[in-house]
Amino acid sequence: MPEWLCYSRPMRLLVVEDDPDLNRQLASALEEAGYAVDRAVDGEEGHFLGDTEPYDAVVLDLGLPKMDGLSVLEAWRRAGRTMPVLILTARERWSDKVQGFDAGADDYVAKPFHMEEVLARLRALLRRAAGHATSEFTCGPVRLDTRASRVTVAGLAVKLTSHEYRLLAYLMHHQGRVVSRTEIVEHLYEQDFDRDSNTIEVFVGRLRKKLGVDVIQTVRGLGYVLAPAAGAS
């Protein structure tokens, strides 16, 4: 797998859009931006996935077959699903936008849209959901800048694979909390990823080696925690 500096976000997303071309375009753009992406083409499939999988955010079209987007969103919220939802709508009336917010949407983009706007709005939603006001995360000498798509250690850029970057950024978003291997797999990788894989340990080992600093701690029997080493600035 080729290496590059970094992707913009390391989260697992769901795209629910019935237009096959737009569905593919959205998924491709999000994957290129570093997200793990699952797709659905109708409301029933989208509702099922959103109700059974731990997505960090959802891109949801309102005009869906089988079950419309507002009904999908309302059902998720009634079931206690709290992931941020960005709705896509071709509807011009302000009342449709109000209905979307009342149903539990966190933001919306009107069609036609620029893909960069979708990416920017998703970054903002994920930042707010994680309780962060800025696009920069630091742990000791390690710095992750999601807006500039860079990871540096003591000011020097570090090249990471997509899996390594997703892992680091997820730990950054949950800094100071123990994160289990199961949680990492569920939130960072697509639905067809091998859930019984032990490759997380391999990713952690490679990431530690590339960072060259002691910030990823193993908590025996529980998982990993990102925390600066004692005396680190």
Automatic annotation (TrEMBL):
Q: Which residues bind DNA?
A: 134-228
User: GO cellular-component terms in the record?
Assistant: cytosol; protein-DNA complex
Q: Which GO terms describe its molecular function?
A: phosphorelay response regulator activity; transcription cis-regulatory region binding
The cross-references to SUPFAM superfamilies, in alphabetical order and at most eight, read:
C-terminal effector domain of the bipartite response regulators (SSF46894), CheY-like (SSF52172)
- The lineage's top-level taxon is Bacteria
- Which ranges carry the Response regulatory domain? 12-126
Report the residues modified as 4-aspartylphosphate: D61
Report keywords, A-Z. Answer: DNA-binding, Phosphoprotein, Transcription, Transcription regulation, Two-component regulatory system
**UniProt xrefs under InterPro entries:** CheY-like_superfamily, OmpR/PhoB-type_DNA-bd, Sig_transdc_resp-reg_C-effctor, Sig_transdc_resp-reg_receiver, WalR-like, WH-like_DNA-bd_sf
Instruction: Give TM segment ranges.
Output: none
Looking at the record, the residues that make up the OmpR/PhoB-type domain are 134-228
Q: Which Pfam families match?
A: Response_reg (PF00072), Trans_reg_C (PF00486)
Tell me the Gene Ontology biological-process terms attached to this UniProt entry.
regulation of DNA-templated transcription
Spell out the protein name for this chain.
Transcriptional regulatory protein phoP
Q: Which organism is it from?
A: Blastochloris viridis (Rhodopseudomonas viridis)
